[in-house]
């Protein structure tokens, strides 16, 4: 009978080796997403970690805050708190910006062909669907800078795919130019949803503002408490919020931003959040 793989033995040595080479690492769970925050850090109640080099208001030793959990501290990586994550981990990830690196994520053959024509040769790591091109130098991360091309550097993580081939070269201006019109921060601006006004003057049909506040708080908690199937949980939660509040006009950018923040704290990317929100609106005919 085949025995289950001891993922701790598989991933922990890799993580420690990468950390020893000054590459900040973190474990990923199934779906290539980080582990959710602990209860103390849930919903960023602790204040969050503003960057990799200073812990800021949060000194939690657990695997929290997605990319900001990445560390080169061998004691933290092999600690008891992290051991639980390594047992369940599906892969090792790293924070490129924390090591002064930028990853150009090429997601398909067309993107690879474009890179070969427009970008200088550098270290290349094959991925499931394309390639990671690694450059020396950090910059702001940005998704979908062109078809099939994402940039992962500061405030982002990339899955470790091995050493690949070639030697990393200096980050070219061509890559910086790609992201010139993209937001530097990983979190997107909250979206304003356009919904038809209800009959009877356009006022909110709900009893009190507290009704909406409770609904948003419950939605945030539902996302935060998800231990598996996070993609599906986020979509269903967005769907539930929109089915209740999407037609009365009471949702604001602040409410939507809270939901996006909760989803990204569980490891969802800005693009996944936007897609889930759009799909929920489409399903409801909003």
Helix content: 25-40%
Give helix and strand order, one letter per element, not per position.
HEEHHEEHEEEEEEHHHHH
- Computed over alpha carbons, the radius of gyration is 20 Å
Mean pLDDT: 81
**What is the terminal-to-terminal distance?**
52 Å
What's the tally of helices? 9
Largest sheet: 6 strands, mixed
Low-confidence stretches: 51-56, 182-202
* Class of secondary structure makeup: alpha+beta
Number of strands: 10
Task: Bin the strand percentage.
Answer: 5-15%
- Shape, please? globular
Architecture blueprint of SSEs:
Blueprint: H1 7-20, E1 25-29, E2 33-34, H2 74-77, H3 80-88, E3 91-94, E4 101-106, H4 109-118, E5 123-126, E6 131-136, E7 142-146, E8 149-152, E9 158-159, E10 169-170, H5 173-178, H6 209-224, H7 230-245, H8 253-265, H9 270-284
Parallel strand pairs: 6-10
Antiparallel strand pairs: 1-2, 1-3, 3-9, 4-6, 4-8, 5-6, 7-8
Helix pairs in contact: 1-3, 6-7, 6-8, 7-9
Please provide a written account of the structure:
By secondary structure, this protein is an alpha+beta fold. It has helices at 7-20, 74-77, 80-88, 109-118, 173-178, 209-224, 230-245, 253-265, 270-284, and strands at 25-29, 33-34, 91-94, 101-106, 123-126, 131-136, 142-146, 149-152, 158-159, 169-170. The protein has 9 helices and 10 strands.
Quick take:
The protein has 286 residues and is an alpha+beta fold.
Keywords:
single chain; 286 residues; six-stranded mixed β-sheet
